[in-house]
Amino acid sequence: MDVRKTPTRRRQDNDDKGPSEASSSSSLPVLARLYVYALHGCLCELVFTAAWDWCSTRDRRMVGHSSLWALPMYSGAIYIMERLRCWLLRRRHPLPVRLLAYTIFIYFWEFSWGAGLRQLEACPWDYSEFKYNLGGLVTLEYALPWTVAAFLAEHHVIRNTLRIRLDS
User: Fold this and answer.
1) pTM (predicted TM-score)
2) For the purposes of burial, counting CB atoms within 10 Å of the CB of 143, is it exposed (0-12), middle (13-18) or buried (19 or more)?
3) pLDDT tens for residues 102-116?
4) Rounded distance between C-alpha atoms, residue 58 and residue 81, angstroms
């Protein structure tokens, strides 16, 4: 009996690549990923606001709140983070550098959306009561929650969404 060892190749997951480098014929289309990202962002916002309110008021109803503006805000933000993740991973940046980049981006994104929505008199948040706020549009008190959100987005939401494949 002749037993030959065949060389084994290390499998490289497509989730560490951007959608353009992954198998584009079967990967989830951009609009579907935007949908997933929008729902994820809104769900996280509802959970966060319910938990934040419970911590400050002990309201057991756990009523979270959001706005329909959150759908395009979160879908766009997480999609851009998907692209940023691809770029940062290709350059082999360590996790702390990636989290810092994501958190800075999140603050820029929130400030930009807040400024635009304020012009329309439609901004659903106001951080003016926080000590370290900028124009009531962003607050440094949320740096840790935004960093945790960025970690979850990179390691779970984006990574797993990019793994979803559609059968022909």
Assistant:
1) 0.83
2) middle
3) 999 999 999 999 999
4) 34
Task: Determine the Cα–Cα distance for residues 2 and 5; give it in Å rounded to an integer.
Answer: 10
What is the spatial distance between Cα 45 and Cα 167, in angstroms, rounded to a whole number?
32
Give the pLDDT confidence of 116-132 residue by residue, as tens digits. 999 999 999 999 999 99
Q: Is 2 exposed, middle or buried (0-12, 13-18, 19+ CB in 10 A)?
A: exposed
CA distance 151 to 99: 7
Residue 139 β-bridge partners = 133
Angle at 21 between CA 18 and CA 27, to 5 degrees: 75
Half-sphere exposure of 143 (CA within 13 A, CB side): 7
**C-alpha to C-alpha distance for 84 and 43, rounded to whole angstroms:** 22
Spatial contact of 157 and 36, defined as CB atoms under 8 Å apart: yes
The tokens describing 73, both together, are: 């805000």
CB atoms under 10 Å from CB of 119, counted, come to 9
User: How far is it, in rounded angstroms, from Cα 36 to Cα 31?
Assistant: 9
What are the respective helix, strand and coil percentages of the chain, to the nearest 5?
A: 60, 5, 35
